[in-house]
Amino acid sequence: MIQAQELTKRYGAKTVVDRVSFTVQPGQVTGFLGPNGAGKSTTMRMVVGLAKPTAGAVSVNGRRFTESRNPLTEVGTLLEAKSVHKSLTPRSHLRAMAATHSIPFTRVDEVLDLTGLKDVAGKKVGGFSLGMGQRLGIATALLGDPRVLILDEPVNGLDPEGVAWVRHLARSQAAAGKTVFISSHLMSEMAQTADHLIVIGRGRIMADAPITEFLDDGVAQTVVRAAELEALMTALAADGVQLTRVDATTLRVIGPDSEVIGRRALEAGIVLSELRPLQRTLEDAYMELTRDAVEYQSQDSSTTKGGK
User: Fold this and answer.
1) Class of residue 177 by CB neighbours under 10 A (exposed 0-12, middle 13-18, buried 19+)
2) Close Cβ partners of 198 (under 8 Å, ≥ 6 residues apart)
3) Under DSSP, is residue 169 helix (H, G, I), strand (E, B) or coil?
């Protein structure tokens, strides 16, 4: 378990993490989301003592991580995959790490096999791709069979098979009762991986809830298609109903559910050729929540000087 209480980090006059409090529970995958510069990596670094909080506190399994006598068996981290010396091989790097904690070399072979590095275990890390570096970082995190796993953007550089493998790994670790704290910018992947979400923006917690609650905003959205679109819009018009014309025969309706829409169309004698509820995606929910918390805003090309 990871517990943060009023966790704050300042660099000079800039507050990067601002009075953040949250709990990451064992037995589930907790996703950590936020725009670039939101404070995700800084928060993760404070959890394991790589950054010192300006105020507040954070504990891992009931105590500060820096007090652990066997840190590799307490927390496995992937915070900077390219931190391994280029002249080392995966096997030599992992064996050196294992020696510091009296971890048997048989465990090194296990994690090399688990992360798909067995065939390149004797090659120098300097020639590795970003994806292979990520796999080595994950192998290092798993080496001590830790109770807590913290992975910062673990799917960077991985191919689709590798992304699916990280998803399976995270869920299997959580199923074994471990605490899994993982950040990612891939919303579609996080939607399939996480049980719980913590969203941070401009250093502050914006959401902390099960993913099902995060996705369900209680507002029904439906796509409706009919030849008599104007008549349908008149039949559906009411307080609290939002109607958006998609094309000459298609309407997007926010408010009433599909049953209510179908009944009103029937009462008006309008034939519907399509009536399809829309599933709110994680990307939709995330973009809506963080719209005003993005530190580095992109400008639409149509509004830039000289844009066409």
Assistant:
1) exposed
2) 22, 24, 30, 31, 32, 33, 205, 207, 208
3) helix
Return d(Cα 105, Cα 92) in angstroms, integer: 10
The two tokens of residue 11 are 């660099």
pLDDT digits (tens, 9 = 90+) for 55-87: 999 999 999 998 888 899 999 999 976 678 889
**Under 8 Å CB-to-CB from 280, ≥6 apart: which residues?**
215, 216, 217, 221
Q: b/e map of 91-108 (b: 16 or more CB within 10 Å)?
A: bbbbbebbeeeebeeebb
**Residue 303 pLDDT:** 39
Q: Which amino acid, one-letter code, is at 200?
A: I
Alpha-helical regions (H) of 128-159: 130-142
DSSP 8-state symbol, 158: -
104 confidence band (pLDDT: 50, 70, 90):
very high
Q: Which two tokens stand for residue 26?
A: 């064992």
Strand pairing class (2-11; 14-24): antiparallel
Q: State both tokens at 51.
A: 């950054």
Residue with tokens 């830039």: 304
pTM of the predicted protein model: 0.79
Residue range 184-241, pLDDT digits in tens: 888 888 889 999 999 999 999 999 999 988 776 666 789 999 999 999 999 999 878 8
Please give the helix or strand (H or E) that residue 273 lies within, else none.
Answer: strand 272-277
* Beta strands 250-255 and 196-201, pairing class: unpaired
> Do 21 and 205 touch, CB atoms closer than 8 A?
yes
